[in-house]
Design brief:
single chain, globular, 2 strands, mainly alpha
Length: 109
């Protein structure tokens, strides 16, 4: 996620917040699609019994997009936010991702 945060910072300084979130979302989806497509060749993991398009499990894409956007929001506001709120966000994001992943698998898997 670090490269995505760096992309977001660069785009935000040049084009604004909305463009930064768009850049993080698009580049995050591209990165995770590539990772999901390459994972079975490593072999890291392979989706079994899931809806797939071009070798990529569909159900993981929306949670991974949410992970990218939530992480960028957490990073960009870390200096303005109290430390306990940032720590809470660090703890909450993996739970959000896991919940989105389980829900997405239930409906799209």
């Amino acid at each position: 996620l670090l490269p995505l945060m760096m992309i977001g910072r660069m785009v935000e300084s040049a084009r604004g917040v909305a463009a930064a979130f768009t850049a993080v979302g698009v580049s995050g989806l591209a990165l995770f699609i590539a990772a999901e497509w390459l994972a079975p060749t490593i072999p890291l993991w392979e989706p079994v019994g899931a809806s797939m398009v071009l070798g990529v499990a569909v159900y993981v894409l929306l949670p991974e997009l949410g992970l990218c956007l939530a992480t960028y929001e957490l990073v960009r506001g870390a200096r303005r936010r109290p430390l306990p709120a940032t720590v809470g966000g660090i703890i909450a994001i993996p739970f959000m991702y896991l919940g989105m992943l389980a829900t997405s698998y239930q409906f799209l898997g």
